[in-house]
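Page 37, continued from 36.
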C-alpha cells in the first residue's frame, strides 16, 4: 500500500471509529423530581397507522430490505401483526436484534479539494424501518407525557411540537 493510502485509512479510522469515553457527570447535582404518570401502555392500530403514514416513502433501504413505500402500500394487511409485534416488544421489554442493525455509508462531500481531511466525509446511517416506526410511536408518547405534565421549562423550545 502506498503511504498516502495508509494515511487516508488512518484518518478515517480515527474519525469514524473513535473510542468512546464516559462523560464527566461529577458536576451534576443529584436533585430529582419523581412524578408518577399513568398512560395506556398498549400501542393501538391507529398509532401504528398514523406513524407509518408520516414516514417518508422514498428513503433508502435499510438492513431489512423493506422500503418505506412497500410498508405504506401494505400496511392495511400488516397493521394487526405490526401492532402485536410492537406491543410484545413493550410488554417483554425487548428490542429485537434485527431492529438494532444499521448500515452505515460513507459519502464524500462534493467539490472539496482535499479528501484526506476526515471532515470531507459524511456518515449516513440507514436504520431498520420497523425500528423507526416503534421509535416514532414511543417518542410521540413521551412528548405527549412531557407536555401534558409540564415537565420542560419554557426555555426548552427546540424540542417542542408547538
Amino acid at each position: 500500500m502506498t503511504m498516502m493510502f495508509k494515511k487516508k485509512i488512518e484518518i478515517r479510522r480515527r474519525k469514524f471509529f473513535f473510542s468512546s469515553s464516559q462523560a464527566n457527570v461529577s458536576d451534576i447535582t443529584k436533585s430529582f423530581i419523581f412524578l408518577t404518570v399513568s398512560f395506556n401502555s398498549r400501542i393501538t392500530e391507529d398509532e401504528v397507522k398514523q406513524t407509518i403514514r408520516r414516514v417518508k416513502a422514498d428513503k433508502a433501504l435499510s438492513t431489512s430490505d423493506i422500503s418505506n413505500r412497500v410498508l405504506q402500500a401494505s400496511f392495511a394487511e400488516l397493521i394487526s401483526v405490526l401492532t402485536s409485534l410492537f406491543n410484545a416488544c413493550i410488554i417483554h421489554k425487548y428490542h429485537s436484534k434485527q431492529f438494532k442493525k444499521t448500515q452505515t455509508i460513507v459519502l464524500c462531500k462534493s467539490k472539496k479539494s482535499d479528501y484526506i481531511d476526515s471532515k470531507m466525509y459524511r456518515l449516513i446511517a440507514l436504520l431498520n424501518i420497523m425500528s423507526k416506526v416503534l421509535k416514532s410511536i414511543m417518542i410521540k408518547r413521551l412528548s405527549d407525557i412531557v407536555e401534558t405534565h409540564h415537565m420542560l421549562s419554557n426555555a426548552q423550545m427546540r424540542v417542542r411540537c408547538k
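The first helix runs from residue 3 to 16. Flag for discussion at group meeting. The mean pLDDT is 78.
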